[in-house]
Amino acid sequence: MTTDLTALRQELLDLLCQLAYKEGDFVLSSGQRSSYYINGKLVTLHPQGALAIGRLLLSLLPPDTQAVAGLTLGADPIVSAVSVVSAIENRPIPALIIRKETKGHGTRAYIEGPVLPDGALVVVLEDVVTTGQSAMKAVERLREAGYKVEEVISLVDRKQGGAELYAAKGLKFRTLFSIEELQARYQQMNS
User: Fold this and answer.
1) Theoretical Cys-Cys bridge with 79: which of 6, 95, 104, 174, CB 3.0 to 4.6 Å?
2) What CATH number labels 2-189?
3) 131 is in an annotated binding site
4) What pTM was computed for the model?
């Protein structure tokens, strides 16, 4: 199983380098300029990417996790992949999607998905963390709904303040890949 996860991790890293990582001049959602951009959806919506993500992130979840959640749209395919893989692995964990704004009709809910008991442990998932603000919005909405959130897990950490923000808010933060690891593999593959 460990060797399998190690191989899956390498496969996912390669997919991120081939499909998601680009160099150039970009403006990020945080408003910051960057010499590179990672479009995680090109991998999270890819069949092999989604399967690898689902298996790898499921293996990182605390045993008492009752749901995975994330802010729409970047986290939608990630939480869905983890939820589907969890069912296949006979460890069913539902997915929750956090809206940026309340729904304009019906229940006007911020959170889509099954209603969980108060105090349920929810892990927030994210594709790419820069400043950490997107995942923090999800954490705040979940806590307002009465859920317990102690951890954020991302695919890639750009190392631009997200980890420090989470630490300051008392959250554990883990990531599959650092930006340095992604860039080193990208250079290897393109030299």
Assistant:
1) 95
2) 3.40.50.2020
3) yes
4) 0.94
